[in-house]
Write a structure and sequence with these properties.
This protein is an alpha+beta fold. The protein is built from seven helices and seven strands, in the order βββααββββααααα. The protein folds into two domains: 243 residues, Beta Polymerase, domain 2 (2-Layer Sandwich), CATH 3.30.460.20; 62 residues. Strands 2-1-3-7-6-5-4 form a seven-stranded mixed β-sheet. A hairpin with a 2-residue loop joins strand 4 and strand 5. The longest helix has 67 residues. The radius of gyration is 34 Å and the shape is rod-shaped. The two termini are 67 Å apart. The relative contact order is 0.09.
């Protein structure tokens, strides 16, 4: 789907045709739409197709007066039960006349601009538009990382109550999300530092300040992601040790119970043999046998209690 916007009197308006200083948002496009855009706007076709690859890394490219910047943005989807937090590439194409954003799915960072959640946004200032997208991306990463931390805390509380495979799988999926975030944030940081050094985009002092903010926010997000990942890894190792320890306790308990139950069985087996046995002529032989079994079993229980097997 292709949607065209333009800032008119400080308000973002949707328009029907391409104009100078407009913003073209492309979401989940067809091959025909991409070819038409490429021909009409004289943009290399690979600039439009590359950001649609979910594995595309953050990078910068320039050709024939067109500049392509690929950012990895965070994506949250509640319908994805296994891994709700993932990342996707967003392509930002800048020419002298227009700015284009392209992604395989609708993402929050673009929707925030469309819904007017970003202040001081104008389609005329394309370089600042790029920096605002980058800054918004870093802020959304920080927001999602805090949500991931909250979810980790909730799962941890559930694990304290009862060790279930479901909770452990949730922690594993959260760890996967953190790996996605860390990898994407690092590639974004390298891309922004390269953008700052090469000066492909002309920036005024305000833009340079915003660029510094973007890099700072990205570094903070990377540090948070690393910290949460380390905490989560330590937590999973701790729970693995607890599970192993619980298993050892259960095995020791079952072994002790088996030995205790074996004592009466052994004595009964001995007195069942067709040979001369103590107390066989006594009228209280059965009670004596039970007493011996009970006494030996009680002694066994005391020994195991002393050894903390019970």
């Amino acid at each position: 789907m292709i949607t065209i916007f333009k800032s008119i009197q400080n308000n973002l308006k949707e328009i029907s045709k391409f104009e100078n200083d407009c913003w073209i948002n492309v979401s989940n496009p067809t091959n025909e739409e991409l070819e038409k855009l490429s021909q009409k706007l004289k943009i290399p076709l690979d600039f439009l197709t590359d950001p649609l690859d979910v594995d595309e890394r953050a990078r910068i490219d320039a050709e024939n007066g067109c500049i392509l910047i690929v950012l990895r943005v965070s994506r949250f989807d509640e319908k994805e039960v296994d891994i709700p937090f993932t990342t996707l590439p967003v392509g930002i194409i800048i020419t002298k006349e227009i700015a284009i954003t392209i992604c395989s799915k609708d993402v929050r960072v673009i929707l925030d601009f469309i819904n007017g959640k970003v202040r001081n946004f104008s389609t005329e200032n394309k370089s600042r538009f790029l920096l605002q997208i980058s800054h918004r991306t870093a802020l959304l990463y920080l927001k999602d990382l805090r949500e991931i931390n909250n979810r980790t805390t909730m799962v941890e509380k559930e694990l304290h109550k009862a060790m279930k495979n479901e909770e452990l799988i949730k922690l594993l999926n959260i760890e996967k999300s953190l790996v996605f975030f860390t990898t994407s944030l690092r590639s974004n940081e390298l891309m922004m530092e390269r953008l700052q050094k090469t000066e492909i985009i002309k920036m005024n002092p305000d833009d340079e300040d915003l660029m510094e903010d973007v890099i700072t926010e990205s570094k903070q997000a990377i540090e948070m992601s690393n910290v949460y990942s380390n905490i989560l890894s330590g937590m999973m190792d701790a729970f693995a040790s607890v599970i192993s320890n619980n298993l050892n306790v259960v095995v020791k308990f079952l072994a002790a119970v088996t030995i205790i139950l074996m004592i009466p069985t052994l004595i009964a087996s001995l007195y069942g043999m067709n040979v001369k046995l103590p107390f066989q002529d006594s009228s209280h032989a059965f009670l004596i046998t039970l007493s011996i079994s009970f006494t030996l079993s009680a002694i066994g229980v005391l020994i195991f209690i002393k050894r903390k097997w019970f």
